[in-house]
Amino acid sequence: MSQPPITTASGIPVADNQNSASAGPRGPLLLQDFHLIEKLQHFNRERIPERVVHAKGSGAYGTFTVTHDITKYTKAKLFSAIGKKTDTFVRFSTVGGEKGSADTERDPRGFAMRFYTEEGNWDLVGNNTPMFFIKDGIKFPDFIHTQKRDPQTNLKSPTMMFDFWSKTPESLHQVTMLFSDRGTPDGYRHMDGFGSHTFSLINEAGERVYVKWHLKTRQGIKNLPAAEATRIAGTDPDYAQRDLFGAIAAGDFPQWDVKLQVATEAELAAWEARTGWNPFDLTKVWPHKDFPLIPVGVFELNRNPLNYHAEVEQAALSPSNVVPGMGYSPDKMLQARLFAYHDAQLYRVGTNHQHLPVNAPRCPFHNQQRDGAMAIANGGAAQNYAATEAGGSNPQGLGHGEPALALQGGAARYDGRGQEDDYTQAGNLFRLMPAQEQQNLFDNIAGPLSQVSAEIIARQLGHFDQADPAYGAGVRAALAARGVVA
């Protein structure tokens, strides 16, 4: 098939795309050769800043289908009828590595979904783990710095990682998950996803319930042994991208069941009184025996992007994007992310990143935001301001209409870490693992832990001991096998 004629970005035909205009056959070159200048200028600017976290990712489009009625919990229209379908986009990612890192590194995996609803975009931006390392967003930059490169050596540093973790016992639950077999999933199709945070749903009567979202893979959980993950990192660093793209291209469309845990405010208060766990703490989970999973629907990925940069690299998701019938919670990590994610996209992609097709809502939209770089949908001649009525506001009766959230206590900085239980749920997770998975956990931890100071080792082992004595003993034995006496 013949290619169309080459033009400049302004549509002007290019006379010669192979030879620069020069003063004589050997040059020098002429500044008037605009095609040369534009071509090099654009090449220099091809890369937008990579994400600080979740830099390397894969994406695909699909469909969410409602299979069960949850309208008693929410007025969100995408759940209004069984069988109703909503277009979706999903971006999977590793968290700590750079854009060129290996897909099989030991790391949590991002699991970010966008639902293009008739009421706007709903972004469920989570991970493949139901918990996280920290409970307050003010610690997020510190934590991520420990997962990146040492500022002096420019190397990944087990010392930085375990120094932070050993001084932050709230991280133990997620550290246990990270160094288990689930820290190296076999591609993106064979892992579960979680909204992780506590969110809320609001029904037509204005009643609020709190929820946690679960995405259960229909392909079955598969993880890579540590040695195999390392081998693949060296032979096929794009393993997960290749697997996802290839499966969809072959018509083997992956699917996940969408499920919910639901609790009223009173139920959470009673649970907290019984367990001592803050239900809005991201380092904790809601046990299924206390809050059973409720089926909602199924989503399928069935279409690959045509342009990775335009549709995956420039995809800009944020947990602040919730539609009417949904809301947030007092989760401190969620509250920080509501600001940070949108702000990151403003910096990385631009002021008008929501104009890009992958980010634009597929329903009518109207606002009075104007101008800025790449202002594609700029409002035309419509009024670009909203006046304030002298008689007071007159709400249009649309939107979220959330019931008031009761507040307790004075505005201050509260640190309850010394009084909180960081060990029971980590121990519960450890005790759920079969013996071989426990041994894998010990070995996976002992590798990087053996490279740090005796002080950090002792501090971290103390946390394992409190989660379960067998946990600490197993890691000590694995360290001893590496010649480290702890």
Keyword list:
Catalase HpII,  Chain A, domain 1; 2 domains; ten-stranded antiparallel beta sheet; 29% helix; 15% strand
List the helices and strands and how they pair.
Elements: H1 34-44, E1 57-66, E2 85-94, E3 109-117, E4 120-127, H2 140-147, H3 158-166, H4 172-178, E5 193-194, E6 199-202, E7 208-217, H5 226-235, H6 239-249, E8 255-263, H7 265-275, E9 294-303, H8 308-313, E10 326-327, H9 332-348, H10 424-432, H11 435-449, H12 454-467, H13 469-481
Active site: 54, 127
GO molecular function, one term: catalase activity
EC number: 1.11.1.6
Describe this protein's structure:
Keywords: Heme, Hydrogen peroxide, Iron, Metal-binding, Oxidoreductase, Peroxidase. The chain is of the alpha+beta class. The protein has 2 domains: about 55-355, Catalase core domain (Catalase HpII,  Chain A, domain 1, Beta Barrel); about 425-480, no CATH class. It has 13 helices and 10 strands. It has helices at about 35-45, 140-145, 160-165, 170-180, 225-235, 240-250, 265-275, 310-315, 330-350, 425-430, 435-450, 455-465, 470-480, and strands at about 55-65, 85-95, 110-115, 120-125, 195, 200, 210-215, 255-265, 295-305, 325. Strands 1, 2, 3, 4, 5, 6, 7, 8, 9 and 10 form a 10-stranded antiparallel β-sheet that branches. The longest helix is centred in the C-terminal third of the chain and has 17 residues, at about 330-350. The radius of gyration is 25 Å and the shape is globular. About 35% of the residues are buried.
